[in-house]
Amino acid sequence: MHRPRVPVTTPAPATLKLFVPGLLGRAHWRAALPGLSRLAALEAVLGRAAVLPAPAAHDRAVFEALGCALDAVPVAALTHHVDFAADHDGAWLRADPVHLHADIDRMVLLDAQMLALDFGEARALVATLNAHLAAERLRIEVGASPLRWYVRLPAVARMRTQAPLELAGRHAGSGLPAGADAGPWLRRGNELQMLLHGHEVNVRRAARGALPVNAVWFWGGGALPAADRLVRPRLIVGTNALTAGLAAWLGVPVDTRATAALAPGTGPAVVDVDAVQTAVHADDVHAWHAALSVLDGTVLAPALRALRAGRLERLTLWDGASTRVLARTGAWKLWRRRALDATM
To answer: Is the pLDDT of residue 140 over 80?
Structure first.
């Protein structure tokens, strides 16, 4: 009996989109690389990949990799999906607590991660700020972390902002809101700063040697675009609010293990690595190298093997300065080897 042949369909190879803010470390650290243990897989990827221009901002790079180029990524609306169970629609603005430190001729920003703020302190501070903002029908809400604060906007504010983490340790003035609607938010920031000065929460913090919360940093405003504008990934890997919010908004699985992105599957997997940037902000060269070693052994080495075996079609690595793209054919160019410190 003749049986019709059933066509066999081979799943399209997967792609891996890897985001590693802080990968390049600090310029003077790279001179120490030859004296540290070798990172063979990272050396191979950086030496063989094509280098393309890319947005410097982490959130913009993630959205662009998913097929949606935005001048300003609405991070607040995205992370709202992590911090609140519902009511995500509309425009939101992050209003995060920070510390501004006067240093000779500039104000140095220390982001919320340096504050060790608890929920009791956050709510007491916000209650004072909301009493002032009530006249403008604005209200700050504390998220699931005492370090993430939000303001619902009546409309999208036309202004450019910068994430406090990207400004950490630098002059705060270079990242203040700018644009057509920035004026009122600069005024509000100054007013809230005066309310925070001398607040009883900060008096108690100063008494125990903790940094005062002396400013509110407005950033990440906007409304989310239509989700169908994005290339939906099959998996998102990360431990930060950005990746968790992206997964919740798109309704795709999220994992904290980078190795999960290398499991068999089709379509793009997005991996966002925090540990490298954390080491950079801590100004710890050994922690930076240790984080790179973990990345090298648990992600990049198996990714190279998957590329050569045909299980992975393309590896894309964003490093904060550029995007490096390594295709299957490039993974086999074993003669392309350069010292890592020269490649970075």
So the answer is: yes
